[in-house]
Specification:
The protein starts with 7 loop residues before the first strand and ends in a 6-residue tail after the last helix. The protein has a single domain, classed as Anthranilate synthase, CATH 3.60.120. The protein is an alpha+beta fold. It is globular and about 65 Å long. A hairpin with a 2-residue loop joins β11 and β12. It contains 10 helices and 22 strands. The strands form 2 sheets. Strands 1, 2, 3, 7, 8, 9, 10, 11, 12, 18, 21 and 22 form a 12-stranded antiparallel sheet that branches.
Length: 430
């Protein structure tokens, strides 16, 4: 069977108990490629979406596109790639990127894959679309190893700023809030270390065991790897419907079922978390209105508690029907960057972020995803991620939180350290 973009297509059945082994085989098979996207929901089907797993692989010399290039081509083929936080300066010309970098991804990058491999949700078929014979690709995948060695390395991560400096920054943000400059600002720091013996694949496999997130991604572009356990969707399109699912509000899981229910109730009643969340929902509603048919923006879920392996989150779903003739690029320019990683009002807080943070965010708090041949797409929020550069063996984590007038600076520091520790803890401790 041949599809419209001239790739060969074939489906291969499998048994449900084989799924996790197949994922490991696919991850091992991908390693020799220098450009690929591995996107996975980890069988978390509480959020909308088409695929349990979707992979796009490209050759070393593949043609690369920026977001403007694909405006007229997205209906014709698959595209995989990213939108870095730094793209904000192309959306709003008054915004700058002058800080030092800790990851060097370009503002936007997309590629047409030579092979696309996917499993639809609740399906027992592995589908391969490829320039090559799909049977050849399938045999290569199934011949790959089905194990990944655990991490055995101990790392010491260094935080980009001290506790005292961080608390001073939080107080400065609150002073801006008192002066009326903003209402909420997401402030982030970076922690870094050096790998000696651990491969990126090992880190990703361990991350998926620890945090099997619904918007997980292993994204590789040459020497740069992003290993992402994101629970958050930035933006998705199905037919003419567009929807976003921002997260604001987090609490630890309980030690047992009874304590877990208490924690969920505590989160639902936490006034600070609720206030943060509602501000971002309003921001997303306003952003969607720029590209929506009049009167179609609606909040279909408000402040719903979603449960993940380590935490509960408050998530809302905001959707709209698109105006006719709106391109992918126009949609992204209307909504990027996501309000959950910036704050409100968006332009002002992005200017303050540039003045207060110590590093350019790069792909952190940007987005990784795909566009289908029909023009549908799905993009995550790049949080809870490792950034590995194999040229210098550096490994970095960025993390932060939403600061409001009610934030306690000391508590914000403690929450930040807890978030970072959840990733640092993957590394073996003697």
């Amino acid at each position: 069977m041949r599809i419209d973009n001239n790739r060969n297509k074939k489906a291969f059945p499998f048994q449900s108990h084989e799924l996790e082994v197949m994922k490991l085989k696919m991850l091992n098979w991908l390693q020799p490629f220098s450009i690929f996207s591995y996107l996975c929901t980890n069988q978390n089907y509480t959020t909308k979406g088409t695929y349990e797993i979707i992979i796009g692989v490209a050759k070393d010399d593949t043609k690369l596109y920026n977001i403007e290039d694909i405006a007229n081509e997205a209906q014709q083929d698959w595209f995989f790639g990213h939108i870095a936080y730094n793209y904000k300066s192309f959306v709003e010309k008054q915004l700058e990127n002058t800080l030092p970098v800790f990851n060097t991804f370009s503002p936007t990058l997309f590629y047409r894959p030579t092979s696309v491999i996917y499993i639809e949700r609740n399906s027992q078929s592995l589908v391969i679309e490829s320039d090559q014979d799909p049977i050849l690709i399938y045999n290569q995948v199934m011949s790959a190893q089905s194990i990944v060695e655990p991490i055995q390395e101990t790392l010491d991560f260094v935080t980009s700023e001290s506790q005292a400096d961080y608390i001073t920054k939080i107080k400065r943000i609150q002073e801006h809030i008192r002066m009326g400059d903003c209402y909420e600002l997401n402030y982030c720091v970076v922690v870094q270390s050096k790998l000696q013996q651990t491969a990126a694949l090992q880190v990703f496999a361990s991350l998926m065991q620890h945090s099997p997130a619904p918007f997980a991604a292993y994204y590789k572009f040459k020497h740069q790897h992003v290993l992402c356990a994101s629970p958050e969707r930035f933006l998705a399109k199905t037919d003419q419907m567009l929807y976003s699912q921002p997260i604001k509000g987090t609490i630890k899981r309980g030690h047992d079922l009874e304590q877990d229910e208490i924690q969920k109730t505590n989160l639902s009643n936490a006034s600070k978390e609720l206030a943060e969340h509602v501000m971002i929902v309003d921001l997303v509603r306003n952003d969607l209105a720029r590209v929506a048919k009049l009167g179609t923006v609606e909040v279909t879920e408000l402040l719903k508690v979603y449960t993940f392996p380590q935490v509960h989150h408050l998530i809302s779903t905001i959707q709209c029907q698109l105006k006719e003739g709106i391109s992918f690029t126009q949609i992204i320019k209307a909504l990027f960057p996501m309000g959950s990683m910036t704050g409100a009002p968006k332009i002002m807080v992005m200017q303050l972020i540039e003045a207060l943070e110590l590093y350019q965010r790069g792909l952190f708090s940007g987005s990784i995803g795909y566009i289908s041949p029909t023009g549908d797409f799905d993009f995550n929020v790049v949080i809870r991620s490792f950034f590995i550069n194999t040229l210098d063996q550096s490994i970095a984590i960025a993390s932060g939180g939403a600061i409001t007038i009610d934030s306690d600076p000391q508590q914000e520091w403690e929450e930040l350290k807890l978030k970072v520790k959840a990733l640092e803890s993957l590394f073996y401790k003697a």
